[in-house]
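During the reporting period, our protein records have gained a structure token line. One record among many is quoted in full directly below:
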Amino acid sequence: MDELTRLAHAARLGDAAALEALVAASYPQVERFCAGLAGPAAAQDLAQETFLRCVPALRRFRGDASARTWILAIARHVCLDELRARSRRGPAVPLSPELAAPVVADVAEQAAATDLLARLEPDRRAAFVLTQLLQMPYEEAARVCGCPAGTIRSRVARARGDLITMLSGASTSPDAAGLPRNPPATA
């Protein structure tokens, strides 16, 4: 049994120190996953929402999967809820040019990468972020997403293809390539 799962079992039994250690150990990865799915501006809020859902659900944690898988599955649901809410609200108001201007090239590259990820269909984005950014094995990513490992492999391959198409300049907009356009992340 890995350390996070051990902490989750102890926290489920009421060990407050184990709960604190579980959150501290898993928070950075949850926040990074949320940033990959819903954008960096919303990542911290979504990570906090994930743990607000995890804590009361701990009493139902059986350990069928690792605690990391269980927590990231909850984070995925939180992010999908946010993405659905955004699509109902409509496009966000864009930043003014002064606020949107990059300060350094690395920030511009990060913003471009974030924009590309945001243009991926949510299931492909989740599979890509889990396996490529968080380095999660395909089988574990499949448990997080609730689908077979082969589906994760397919989603990652399609996400790579979509990203290559977007980077190659084959289309000037994601809509022309048949890709959904997600609104930018809002705080």
Summary: Residues 1-91 form a domain with the Rna Polymerase Sigma Factor; Chain: A fold (CATH 1.10.1740.10). The first helix runs from residue 3 to 12. The chain has two domains: 1-91, 102-179.
